[in-house]
Fold:
Amino acid sequence: MPGTDLTLLVQAAEAAGEVALRFWRGELKSWDKGGGAGPVSEADLAVNAALEQRLRGARPDYGWLSEESADDPSRLDAERCFIVDPIDGTRAFIAGQEGFAVAIAVAQGECVTAGVVHMPARGITYAARAGGPATRNGHPIAPRESALHGATVLTSKAALDPVHWLGGRVPPVRREFRPSLAWRLCLAAEGRFGAALSMRAAWEWDIAAASLIAERAGCAVTDRHGRAMRFNQPRPLVDGLVVAAPGLHAALRAAMAPDDGDGATAADARAAARDAGAEIAGAGTAGQPPSGTPADAPARPTPAKDAR
Structure:
């Protein structure tokens, strides 16, 4: 039921966004998860609880995979499973930046059938269902083709290490960054940037919803080796990603060094999180459009400090 699932996801994501905004730019409790897993805040947990209550209340037979919930192996036996990141871009959220998202998907088997990426502080909702269009605030979106030379690629500095590229020749792309990985895929899907790229492993909850949005927009969506992404796996990791219009995707893949990795690992995903943290700490405007790029939407008003 991807159509009715999508309606549920949109409503749940937008309601969860209101929960997040009650904490955003307020006095926020946050702490490190330990083990290199990065920070978490009371807002992440509050949004997760609100989503779980709403989504599982509506679909009690669906499995549940969330960044902020203990993994329940019974999800692997469910016909359908929610895949949730309550706040994608927690570091940006804690820093009071706009570049965070609520990301929710439904997977049937190993394929995503409905996905929503909602940007509460920017008033943007990306959505798609299997067989349908990808939309931003209800309007269809599509990627744009670009030559490899000069293409704008949303990625970390680590992805442009010569070790990842054929003959050590890094392609002459223009690197950009946004704190939410889900948002990066959506920005490629709507043609504001040429591609989203990661040479490190990604957690399923970061990319499940956005991968479908990008695919239905018209992007080629694969892991870094050019393989189809698979979701609701026992180890919920995808081995990197390449998301772009088909021509640019092919050009990026052709420029990459032969596979020399050991597959996706949790340590690799934690390293990706550290990369993102370094980017956010080093750029006071992280999460904002580059100079000359129209703003995606006006920011929401800042809630009062004592709002909860």
The first helix runs from residue 2 to 23. Confidence is low (pLDDT under 50) at residues 284-308.
